[in-house]
Specification:
The structure holds 2 protein chains of 2 kinds. Chain A is of the alpha+beta class. Helices cover about 40% and strands about 10% of the residues of chain A. By secondary structure, chain B is α+β, with helices and mostly antiparallel strands. Chain B folds into 3 domains: about 5-115, Butyryl-Coa Dehydrogenase, subunit A, domain 1 (Orthogonal Bundle); about 125-220, Butyryl-CoA Dehydrogenase, subunit A, domain 2 (Beta Barrel); about 225-370, Butyryl-CoA Dehydrogenase, subunit A, domain 3. Chain B has 12 helices and 9 strands. Chain B has helices at about 5-25, 25-35, 40-50, 70-85, 90-100, 110-115, 135-140, 225-260, 275-300, 310-335, 345-355, 360-370; strands spanning about 125, 140-145, 150-160, 165-175, 175-185, 190-195, 205-215, 265, 270. In chain B, a hairpin with an 8-residue loop joins strand 6 (about 190-195) and strand 7. Classes of the chains: A alpha+beta, B alpha+beta. The complex binds flavin-adenine dinucleotide. Chain B: It comes from Streptomyces xiangluensis.
Chain lengths: ~425, ~375
């Protein structure tokens, strides 16, 4: 269903933010369910629930957005998007707060893989995959980490060998979130073993489910099993799947990491849905509920902790604005996304700590027939995921000190050494 | 570095930076301290010509901003004050000037306002009870109606630049409620005791009022109607203080980074050790986060937005803590030098510590946030 309010455009033909906002305001309640109205078993919006039905639901919602004219807001028109600005996206995010959205499609499909394809992909990649993703027909994931290399991403040992018009892949990828439910993946593989590690890589946009790909789910400490490990056994990928140049995979991966830092740090213009940072978000309300339930709303210490957690969210929002503006105007280098990435890890950690303290013993147990008070404890157990996923905070600190502050690079034993002579651990 | 400044604001920034560098380098600050002085009146007067005192006062009452956003302009100055730990009653004079200019019947105080704006007089805001932090209810002294005026009794403590003030903006309770009065320093019954400050040059004073008689015209605004103005003045004081903290931190990080390139151990610069690089990365993040939040708070106060009080408290709760965290860690990175009187870093640590403690500690601001959130 499309909105009845008509779009008002400016001289360049672009709809004004206010007009877009008003149309969204009218369209959203008529087409999206309120989160508060969702049945309890469907309430798992937060990427925790790992089953096919949640993914199917996300695809259906994406299609609804697409048909309503509110999908791919910042993506160019020629690739199925609306060609609007981050201000339009922001207005939409504000209006859509409190409504059901396909949140799990944000990371990595729309905020990491899509922008990387936009920057580095072929015309065919863009026309085919971006449009499909925006319609809700395609989910994209990242095949970057391997059992032997995570932080040292360029140390990938998945092998891709050219065979006429195709490449043949062997090896394994790991920690790929949501791969089991995905269609395509950006996969970093080694095509040249004689070159130093950064120069022998190639990025492929490969089909996830195909002969030779075996996927295993990995159970996480929080009970979810979004993590996957893939095993490649002579997987055939067409040469047209190469993103960028053969041997130029690191340039693509660097761009991908740029988008990943922004996405994880909360600064991606392609993120669609209500954001927690920058305003009184659901996180703050949840903490307030928590102290009311535990009878600590008048405890000055508890009140201060809530204020601290809330303040971190507000500060995060302003930091994101500053870093985004800094990078846009080139007052900060593109690596400055590491600042927001690091803030996210540190603040999420502190917020998990605060929630645990406020919940007290309730975080350790919950009655089978009551509210899930143990959720706070479970989140606490999974806390370090926010310091690892999207590149670890240690790597973010390396990048900030080296690329922003200009301090000496860490010693690397493998620099300029042909990759087949580099030593590896287990 | 601030990204969002207009060309005029940048001009104000460099003019202030240049002038402070010339008139009040750290050597001058040490000398003022040794002489037991807080600031130099001539320097202040020339600073007033640059706009230090008039930015938050509307043009109709003799002030004028450079950008149309006086509060933001004032934070630009305050940031430069922070970078140099500069002497001078910047925050309090601006707060009192804004209070006088914004109050109904402002022309009653046009004389004092004019002299604050041209830098020939200094006024301080007396509003805290002895030994107490920011708490306007507790801080208001008693103002008893008497004939066509009032009689003031009580004590204010922690009055910033109270020792230098020619007049005070005094927070008091009249039977109508929270009120503010202008009280001249040499009025009968006023006694001022300068206190020893942790800062090199930012003085504080205790002010005693023993049966001080003031006419009704000494009221700023209506009797009993000061609560909103007091909150606004508080927001302004805190946001200027936060801007100063941002400047302090930025400067300390600059010279500490340079030190880490120049100082060697085991044949390599400190800046090559990962543990130390990571600490600098954290501190850079905190500094950037503080800068971003202070700028947002300044804009909110400028626009008198409903969330200005919350944002100001978010900024102070963060910067108050992080600024001293950062500078202490920078002391650590300087080794033994860092804890000497000779090294300048303590001058910055003093300013940051005083700012952390005054106008609400980080913890007091967190309690304010909780109140504003209706926890
Ligand atoms: C929730 C979540 C989702 C994820 N999703 C994906 C995904 O979709 N696709 C994908 O490809 N990957 C994904 N990952 C993997 C993630 O990118 C890696 O876990 C991360 O990059 C760290 O790599 P690693 O696990 O191999 O740890 P390692 O690289 O082995 O690091 C171990 C520890 O050593 C530290 N360390 C390593 N090298 C250095 C150094 N030079 N200096 C200082 N410290 C160092 C690290 O910071 C870390 O603390 C995900 C991870 C999580 C937690």
């Amino acid at each position: 269903m499309t909105a009845t309010t008509t779009a008002v455009s400016d001289a360049t033909g672009m709809e004004s933010v206010d007009s877009f906002r008003l149309r969204a305001r009218e369209w959203i309640p008529a087409n999206l369910r309120r989160l508060a109205d969702l049945p309890a078993d469907e309430g798992a919006q937060r990427n925790v629930s790992s089953d096919e039905s949640a993914w199917q639901r996300a695809r259906a919602l994406q299609r609804t957005l697409y048909e309503g004219g509110f999908a791919g807001i910042c993506y160019p028109k020629e690739y199925g998007g609306l060609g609007l600005t981050s201000a339009h996206q922001r207005a939409f995010n504000e209006e859509v707060a409190g409504h059901e959205m396909p949140m799990r499609l944000n990371v990595p499909t729309f905020t990491i893989c899509g922008p990387t394809i936009l920057d580095m992909g072929s015309e065919e990649h863009k026309r085919e995959h971006l449009a499909a993703a925006i319609r809700g027909d395609e989910v994209l994931v990242q095949f970057l980490s391997e059992p032997g290399s995570g932080s040292d991403l360029a140390g990938a040992t998945t092998r891709a060998e050219r065979d006429g018009d195709v490449f043949v892949l062997n090896g394994s990828k790991i920690w790929s979130s949501g791969a089991y439910a995905a269609d395509y993946a950006l996969c970093l593989a080694r095509t040249d073993w004689d070159a130093p590690k950064h120069r022998g890589l190639t990025m492929f946009l490969m089909k996830v489910h195909q002969p030779g790909v075996h996927i295993e789910r990995i159970k996480q400490v929080n009970g979810g099993d979004e993590f996957c490990q893939e095993f490649f056994d002579d997987v055939v990928v067409p040469a047209s799947a190469v993103v960028g140049e053969v041997g130029g995979g690191w340039a693509v991966a660097s761009r991908q990491l740029f988008h990943e830092r922004n996405a994880v740090g909360g600064g991606s213009p392609y993120f669609s849905g209500a954001r927690a940072e920058g305003r009184r978000g659901t996180e703050t309300d949840a903490l307030i509920d928590l102290v009311r339930r535990t009878g600590r709303a008048d405890d000055p210490y508890a009140r201060e902790l809530i204020a601290e957690a809330h303040a971190l969210g507000v500060i995060h929002g302003h930091l994101v604005d500053r870093v985004t503006a800094g990078m846009r105007t080139q007052k900060m280098p593109p690596t400055a996304g590491s600042l927001i990435r690091l803030f996210h890890g540190e603040s999420a950690t502190r917020q998990a700590e605060i929630a645990l303290e406020l919940a007290g013993p309730a975080a350790a147990m919950s009655a089978p027939d009551g509210p899930d008070t143990r959720e706070v404890g479970v989140s606490f157990l999974f806390r370090q995921a926010t310091q690892l996923g999207g590149g670890s905070t240690e790597m973010a600190r390396n990048i900030i000190s080296e690329r922003i502050l200009g301090m000496a690079r860490e010693y690397a034993a493998d620099r300029d050494v042909p990759f087949n002579q580099v030593r590896h651990g287990r | 570095m601030r990204f969002e400044l207009t060309a005029d604001q940048r001009l104000l920034q460099t003019a202030t930076a240049d002038y402070l560098e010339k008139s009040a380098p750290l050597g001058v600050i040490r000398a003022l301290h040794d002489e037991g002085r807080t600031f130099d009146r001539d320097t202040w007067r020339r600073g007033a010509e640059l706009g230090w005192t008039s930015l938050v006062v509307p043009e109709e009452t003799g002030g004028g901003s450079v950008s149309g956003e006086g509060v933001v302009d004032a934070t630009v100055i305050a940031e430069q004050f922070g970078r140099g730990c500069a002497p001078g009653p910047l925050a309090v004079v601006n707060v009192v000037a804004a209070a006088l200019a914004e109050a109904a019947g402002a022309d009653r105080h046009a004389g004092l306002l004019g002299r604050l704006l041209d830098g020939s007089m200094v006024a301080a805001w007396a509003c805290c009870a002895p030994g107490r932090g920011w708490d306007p209810e507790a801080g208001a002294i008693e103002a008893r109606p008497d004939g066509d005026g009032y009689v003031l009794d009580g004590t204010h403590d922690g009055v910033e630049h109270g020792g230098d003030a020619d007049a005070f903006l005094v927070l008091a309770h009249t039977p109508e409620g929270l009120s503010q009065f202008v009280v001249e320093r040499d009025a009968d019954g006023v006694s001022v005791l300068p206190l020893e400050s942790l800062d090199m040059v930012r003085g504080f004073a205790r002010v005693d009022y023993a049966g001080v008689r003031v006419p009704a015209t000494a009221l700023v605004g209506a009797a009993g109607g000061a609560a909103a103005a007091v909150e606004r003045q508080f927001q302004l004081a805190v946001v200027l203080q936060c801007a100063e903290l941002v400047g302090v931190v930025e400067r300390v990080l600059e010279f500490t980074r340079q030190w880490m390139f120049d100082r060697y151990s085991f044949g390599r610069p400190l800046a090559s050790y990962q543990e130390l690089k990571h600490r600098m990365a954290d501190m850079t993040l905190w500094s950037e986060s503080g800068q971003a939040t202070m700028a947002a708070a300044a804009r909110a106060v400028q626009e008198r937005r409903a969330d200005a009080g919350e944002l100001v408290s978010v900024a102070k709760s963060y910067l108050g803590q992080r600024a001293t965290d950062i500078i202490q860690d920078c002391v650590q990175l300087h080794g033994g030098l860092g804890v000497t009187w000779e090294h300048d870093i303590h001058i910055y640590l003093r300013r940051a510590t005083v700012n952390r403690l005054m106008w609400g500690t980080p913890s007091a601001h967190r309690r304010r946030i909780a109140d504003l959130l209706n926890v």
